[in-house]
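Go through this pair.

…
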Amino acid sequence: MTAAVAGADVRDVVVVGAGGMGRAWMDVVRSREDLRPSAVVDIDLSAARAAAAERDWSVPVFDDVAAALQEVRADLLLNVTIPEAHRGVSETAIRAGVPVLSEKPVTPTVADAMWLSALSVTRGVLLATSQSRRHSAGITAFRDALRDLGGLGQLQTQFFQNPRFGGFRDEMASPLLVDMAIHQFDQARYLLGSEPESVYCEEFSPAWSWYRGAAAAQAIFRFSGGARFGYAGSWCADGLTTSWNGDWRASAPGGSATWDGENAVRMQREGGGVQDIPVGAVREGLDAALTEFLAALDGGAPPSGEIRQNIRSLAMVEAAGESAATGTRVELDSVFARAGVSALADAQAAGETEIADQLRTWAGGPPR
């Protein structure tokens, strides 16, 4: 096993998780000339073999991450497991000196994310989340329009979709908030250019829902500077579905703008006509998130999904869930304070002195 080398022409990548998203990531790897697969890992070896064979990859398959990293070269690892497995897989890779690009959420809880942040910092090994929906031509044009309008004070999105996934999502307690809403929450941070401070949220389960848990939610976030972000979403909305990025509207000092979540961006200034904003060509989705991550390995800027930055999007999810459970507004500072205490206790109990010391430097706040 060899850790990442800055400026390498071709990097060896281990893909962990051979489900639907794992296969999507494998297709991205296959499409690139700067990556080559070195192993596929899945607790179901038959799934790993099938996924590799479908792509004509002659690579070993494993059902254990640690074993894979001992046997094959790994310049980076793609963590595409279920959320509950994210911490363990990422920890194993970081301890082996292998940078990790993880599917969201980086961990199920803010406490786990703080613990992993401390591990990443103390080991000097990059860990980032793929917030792939930050990367699209549409959202870039929308953000540019908002800046042209002088920033914004009110932002809202509607997300209504009806996927029949089957599998773990159907059994989650909060499938929409935990597995999907983080995308729109992260997009709101990107568009507002500021950080969330509090949230009031209600989640519920429509009578016709096919999910065990709450598949619908409405939330309002207060951001620094006083901006508000409103979210309304459902994963059991048949008919008139939005795009997978949602349907967005923003109000700014110089006017208003909308984005349909795909390629239609419109803007209107006070007293003026409606303008259709051109949408340029940019790298999008998984490929863009991977490009950003590889640039960081080559000495570029940290990726936007670097764990200490992305943890704020995860905290939005956790705070929204807490608000829904308690029926009260939740301050994100309180989420970080409790998570810090929990992560510190975890590190102390495990005798992880370096991690505990790093957590103390953040004094109960977000990682810095």
User: Anything to note?
Assistant: Residues 11-132+286-306+345-361 form a domain with the Rossmann fold fold (CATH 3.40.50.720). The chain has two domains: 11-132+286-306+345-361, 137-277.
